């Protein structure tokens, strides 16, 4: 079955495998496996054309170094995805007013930006006090008194 395989065919197959794994994983690897796969396929192709393992290895090294020192930064910048805060993320650090007493183990309510939210704290906080939002868990705000 593998009688006709040589080292160049194996490089091409490894390149194809790396690309398939990249497709399965998505962008989780930052497209590193895709680049590695392409480099192996090109290296295997050069090896098949020249018949020289030394030229194949040099081709792979040159392409890899070229990617690492030149193309990698540009690709990473082009793929940089900016994240936009959701409404709940944007209220972390904001100040809210307590509209229903918050007791330890018994959530109260706070008002922020005209909306009433369920709120919990590690200390009792009375109605009318100001609190700072430290985190959001589902529909419950974790707050601390200011």
UniProtKB/TrEMBL annotation:
Cited InterPro entries: Membrane_assoc_protease, NA-bd_OB-fold, NfeD-like_C
Record domain NfeD-like C-terminal: where: 89-144
Record's GO cellular component terms: membrane
Subcellular location: Membrane
Membrane topology, record value: Multi-pass membrane protein
SUPFAM superfamilies attached to this UniProt entry: NfeD domain-like (SSF141322)
Ranges annotated as spanning the membrane: 12-42, 48-70
Primary location group: membrane
Domain of life: Bacteria
UniProt KW Hydrolase keyword: no
Pfam families linked: NfeD
Transmembrane recorded as keyword: yes
Coiled coil start-end: none
Name of protein: NfeD-like C-terminal domain-containing protein
